[in-house]
Amino acid sequence: MKNSRKSVAAVLIILITFAAWGVSLFGIGDKVGNIYDEMKFGLDINGGVYVLLEAETDEKGTDKAKVMEQTKTVLENRVNAMGVSEASVSIEGDNRIRVEMPGVEDAEEAIKQIGRTAMLKFLLADGTEVMTGDNVKDASIATDTDHGGYKITMDFTAEGADLFAAGTEKAATGNITPTVKDENGLLVESNAIVIMLDDEVVSAPTVNNKINSTSCEIYRGSGGFPQEEASQLSALIRGGALPATLTEVNSSVETATIGADSLAKSVKAGAIGLAIVMIIMIIVYGVLGIIADIALLLYVQMILWLMAGFGAVLTLPGIAGIILSIGMAVDSNVIIFTRIREEITKGKSIRVAVDTGFKSALRTVLDAQTTTLIAAIVLYLIGTSSVKGFALTLMIGTVCSIITAVFITQVFVNCVASSRKLSTMKNFGMHEDGTPKIAWKKHFSFVGKRKLFYGISVVILCTGLVFGVAKGFSYGIDFTGGTMMQIEMGEQVDIDEVKSTISEYDLDPTIVYAGDDKTQIVIRTIKDLKSDERTKVIDTIDEKYNLADDAVLASEEFGPTVGQDLRHNAVKSIIIAALCMLVYIRFRFKTWKYGMAAVSGLIHDVLITLALYAIFGFTINNPFIAGILTVVGYSINDTIVVFDRIRENTKFYKRKQNIELVDDSVNQTLTRSIMTSVTTLAVMIPLFILVSSEIRQFLIPLMIGVLVGTYSSIFLCSPLFYDLTRKESLSRYEENKEKSDRARKKQKKANDGIVK
């Protein structure tokens, strides 16, 4: 009965997987659209405008947070009034607000609209102004004990109290003819005091008597205000009293053309990468590989529909994160299959090997994926908008990979193991004699040659240091500050002629070709050009070349402070991630030495990546930050798998010398390390070849990180762990042997001295 339930579950999983793919591609009539229709896409795919604004305020602590929240509320209402759908307003850091407006084409006008100072007015029913928001000190909410719910309290300045008293005296007479309409299009009451923000009525409370006080209350009759409505209204009122002056520090205009093209190429690259991984798994693992492929197909659907269900915004970096997570998800299955085949090699039956292998692999899978999840969470909490998109998909992907490996794969493998026809050595990628068809057979002395590997790393780091000091790093404009404009010229133009055309602006620009036919140009300058200044430059080019209406594909400005924040956040992210991982590894492995070796390897990988960037002159920019932090997650993931085997072997082979134990552990996990690296690179290479330069900038540090992370986990971290534990693990015989060797060398030196 138990086996029959597993068979039914396996059939249901297959049906659900193919049904999910069918819905993703074709939808369900008019009820559910395909995944493209259901997914929300970022500005880099749909096009639009974003602007990063910095608030200038002297407030600190909770007062500053209050100012930022009220400013955010005002901007949200302003963007909504513009009729922009799917717009988002979010606070970044403690004094910046990011506004994204999909579909907006007139960047200059949009930025002017959202950046102007809030105008709050108090009017009589006929539109006569009573006072402005400058006359309001503060506004807050309080429990309305008389009517239930909540009420709003306002505090006035001395001048505001006088003006409000005069206004309420007139309104209380009821003799005013209303001309102002409320938010529903109806005329307000004749005795109303209208609160208007940016020419929009936000409330129109009535008065019955003159209010001669430095404060007043706004309440609603039976039931009072709901808390959310009261909080929003008080924030809007405060917005007029305490507006924060906003300065544009970063803005961008992008068309959907580049994004749509990159989206199509990314999907194509992802399909090719997925197909390559599926073929590799079948070749190496046989029927187990087919099981892994089914789990992968379901895994992709889980990621896409979870993102659609949560309303997450998919960006081009996010697509890179999904495709990268596909490669890393294979790792969980590889770990499980490797452990099952090891149990078969020990002479166990297939059914027993499956049960034992799953139990042994589960701890390794959870430890490895948890460390990657820690890096993704830190990346999401500290990173900027595009990095958050990358981190979100990586987090969802990591969780989904655990679910598919631990539950889905287990169902299918148990079904195969329980079947007389399918539970053969061939179907588990084994020869009939119980040896794996593809495996690392040579035993390499990694610990014995550790000084060679240490030396290789030192040489690369020193070379990178020399290049870094001599040439410096190549920083992108998002680090140095500057402006980028990408324009479709309609034909290949002379770059020197373009430089001459815009020479009056003294930009000292770098101009390069872009696009398949080199009909696009990308202009970069270290000068910070605001939206109106960029418009002037583009208009000058338009006069010369008669550009099309949609010729401006992208226009972006970075203030130098943005680059400083990026560097600061990157360092902070790495430190926080390393500390969190160190604590987790200490908790799981019961000793700091595993954590110290793993974190040392992590730091090594980051420094090696920086050294390679210095040597080869790769550009360090915003995508690099996401890449370097993902290097952290991948590096730890690989190292944890090896360390888990060392921990296990330490428990079962207590009489083995430490050097032999560490070498055996690395050799036993070598096939898995190679497979994971190959499948991860197999997903990234098509993406690197086919997609735009923006995603390619994400992939360079990822590809370096995969190679460097694999190298460090095999050749450095395990030997380093051996060095950290060497003295405490030496047997009495080894201690005596070391002492005699040192005495022999000392005597030899003395004898050499006598001869001389």
Summarize the structure in words.
The chain is of the alpha+beta class. Helix content is 62%, strand content 13%. It contains 23 helices and 19 strands. The strands form 5 sheets. An 8-stranded antiparallel beta sheet has the order 3-4-2-12-18-15-17-16. Helix 10 packs antiparallel against helix 21 and helix 19 crosses helix 20. The protein is globular. The protein starts with a helix and ends with a helix. The model has no long low-confidence stretch (mean pLDDT 80).
Percent strand equals 5-15%
Quaternary assembly: single chain
Count of runs of 4 or more consecutive helical residues:
23
Largest sheet: 8 strands, antiparallel
The percent of residues in helical segments reads 55-70%
What is the 3D shape?
globular
Radius of gyration: 32 Å
Uncertain segments of ≥5 residues (pLDDT<50)?
none
Calculate the mean pLDDT score and round it. Answer: 80
- DSSP E strands, number: 19
As laid out across the biggest beta sheet, the strand order is 3-4-2-12-18-15-17-16
The secondary-structure class comes to alpha+beta
Distance between the termini: 87 Å
